[in-house]
Amino acid sequence: MDLSSGSAGVLALWAAIGYGLGSIPFGLILVKTMNLGDLRKIGSGNIGATNVLRTGNKLAAVLTLLLDGGKGAVAVLIAQAYANESAAQLAALAAFLGHCYPVWLGFKGGKGVATFLGLLLALHWPLGLAACAIWLLMAVVMRYSSLSALTAAGLSPVLAAILGHGEMVWLMVVLAVLIYWRHRANIARLRDGTETKIGQKG
Known about the structure:
Helix content: 55-70%
Largest sheet: none
Number of domains: 1
Distance between the termini: 50 Å
Strand content: under 5%
């Protein structure tokens, strides 16, 4: 099979590879392995790094962040190495969907922020670095992980266009919309002033 072809079967294979990698619930695995409790019963119940931090174990949170970002990057890099940019973008989207809607967890996964940043770094590292910088700046100033993610995701299509990657704009729009949808409860809490800040147990 020619993995670089644009046939429906090959594209479906890249989507499956991306989804499979993205659906690995590293946060859940780490918390269970490190005997930190049931992540689904801690804080928001989310499987991402922000909620892992609410266990009080910073190492587990950092590892979750790196691994969740890494799986998005790996999905893209494999597709780039053996196929083309279209396959890489498809694998990126599938990895993101795998993280947010993993079949192993009844399609109840994380919100995709680390995976989003990881796949951005792999697709186009200047865009990824810009998005990471925006997230970090907002996190330091505002102390809300959700607001940081929403800002970085919302600006990603604009950044892609400014950096000369118009072919990535629509992917960025789709990912941003999905991130906003996954954060709809956070958006409501931000409006009400009840959103939990980074490092705060809740």
